[in-house]
Amino acid sequence: MSDRLTLTRALEASGMESTAAERIATEIYDAIHNDVATKADLERVEIGLKADLERVEIGLKAHIERVEIGLRANIERVEIGLKADVAGVRTDLQALEQRLDHKIATMVNRLVAAIVVALTVLFGALHYWPPHS
Predict the structure, then answer these.
(1) What is the DSSP letter of 128?
(2) Tens digit of pLDDT for each residue in 103-126?
(3) How far apart are CA 86 and CA 83, in angstroms?
């Protein structure tokens, strides 16, 4: 009510007749009365927004914790898989190393045998070589 009276007095002070000022002040007040937010309205909205933000924050924290737990579980599964893969590769490398060692040993044996045969042939040929007198 004091807002309407203040507006009426301001209009009267500007030189407007009292009834006209009162009528204009009433129309203005009625037109904006329901559309103007009061300090109490803003405080209620602020309290509601703060409560909403707190709920969102709590929800986000819970969601982040769930995501983190899921990520940790995924990392552990990947780590276990990688360890198994590394163990498999290690086993394959050991088998390959054994096969390679066997092939090298076989080649060395064949080379030694070839050298022995070559030396035998050489000494045999030298034996039939014309004698030195």
Answers:
(1) T
(2) 999 999 999 999 999 999 999 888
(3) 5
User: Mind listing the pLDDT tens digit for each residue in 9-24?
Assistant: 888 888 888 888 888 8
pLDDT score at 98: 97
- Tell me, what amino acid is at 131? P
Please state the domain extents for the chain.
1-36
Cα gap 4→22, rounded to integer Å? 8
Q: What is the torsional sign of CA 6, 9, 14, 16?
A: positive
Cβ(88)–Cβ(81) below 8 Å: no
Q: Which two tokens stand for residue 91?
A: 């086993």
Please tell me the distance from the alpha carbon of residue 26 to that of residue 14, in angstroms, as a whole number. Answer: 17
CB proximity list for 97: less than 8 A, separation 6 or greater: none
- The torsion angles phi and psi of 130, rounded to 5 degrees, stand at -55, 135
d(CA 75, CA 58) in angstroms, rounded, equals 26
pTM of the entire predicted model: 0.49
Question: Phi and psi of 96, rounded to 5°?
Answer: -65, -40
